[in-house]
Known about the structure:
about 160 residues; 6 strands
Amino acid sequence: MKSKTCCFTGHRQIPKEVRPALEQELEQTLRDLTAQGVVYYGAGGALGFDTLAAQTVLRLRREFPQIRLILVLPCPEQTRGWRSEDVAEYQRILSSADKVVYVSDHYDRGCMHRRNRHLVDHSGTCVAYCARSTGGTAYTVRYARSKGLPVLYLGGASPLL
C-alpha cells in the first residue's frame, strides 16, 4: 500500500511569480507518479501547497478515475480564523475527498506534527514544495527522509535540508 501512496508537504505561502510553474510541475509530477502506479494521494488540508495539491488530484481524478484523494487533517476546527473564501474551497475539497482522517478530536499543540507524521508514515513518496530550512514543511521533509522516502522537490526549491 505504501508504494502506491504519495503525500504532500509545502508552504502555506506561494509567491505569485512561482505559482504558475509550480502548478505545471505538480501536475506533471502527479501524472508521472500515477503512470508508475501511485493511486493514493495524501494532503494535509492546509492553505497554500496542500490546497493546490488537493485541487490538482481532484482535477486529475476526472482523467484517472483510479486515483484517490485522502485528506489527513489535524483536527475538525482547522479552518478557524481562515478567510471565508478559503473555508469555502476547503469545504469543497473536503466534500470531494475519497477519505478523511482526523489525527485529533480538537486542536492541540502537537496535532499539526501528528498530521505530518501520519502522512509520511503511510506513504512511499513525498512531493514537497520546500523553500526554507525551518518550519513545518522542513520538519516534514526531514522526517520523510529519515523514514527513507524519496522526496520530489518542486517549484525550483532546492533541498535545503
